[in-house]
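hiii, so i know i said id send this last week but things got crazy w the move. better late than never?? heres the sequnce for the chain we talked about at the cafe, plus the structure i predicted for it. fair warning i was half asleep when i ran it
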Amino acid sequence: MIEHIELFFKSIFIDNMVFAVFLGMCSYLAVSKKVSTAVGLGAAVIFVLAITVPLNWLLDQYLLQPGALAWLGAEYADYDLSFLSFIMFIATIATMVQLVEIVVEKFSPSLYNSLGIFLPLIAVNCAILGGSLFMQAREIETLGLAFNYGVSSGIGWFLAILAIAAIREKIRYSNVPAPLRGLGITFIITGLMGIGFLSFGGMLTGGDEETEEEKTVEVAPKTEDNNELANNTKIIE
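okay and structure toks below
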């Protein structure tokens, strides 16, 4: 349970997709002009990550890793399909994005029109693919942890785009210098928010210090050897 909680908060605050590794910046900058639009896209990203990361974990464990095909028989144990990781991951992501696009168009046409081209572009959003690749690189052990990582990474991206959208709505009424208006001030704010999120880096490191082992000093027993003492003693006459 502790590892689930640690992974959840670490993925949101410490390893945030936007502020830590700067993934998904194209959608983050383009769809963050209004809070309502940012909420819709953020929810879609959470859904896609929550589905694709566990699915890609299953593909990685039972199909792509070296020796993953051993469940088919001993003759398949030596096969290595890891070179297909990118193709399989992107195919899974594209399938889920198409499903999201169909659902949004059916139940919320206004949101579908406001998102425009950026909704199908979730398929090539580097934050979505990055979630699956980070899951693979960090060797997440169980399907539950993979689902946790997908959801928490999506929530981290959602909080980032929601925060910048709220700030950009308010900053319209501020006296921003002309050279910094638009993306200029947005980049500056994003950098400052990234620095702020760095402060969470020590949040989960309080129990990592190892306790020092007690040092035991072995005292060699004293032996009196008259002959050795006689050799080492100098008699001054």
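btw The radius of gyration is 28 Å. thought thatd interest u
miss u guys!!
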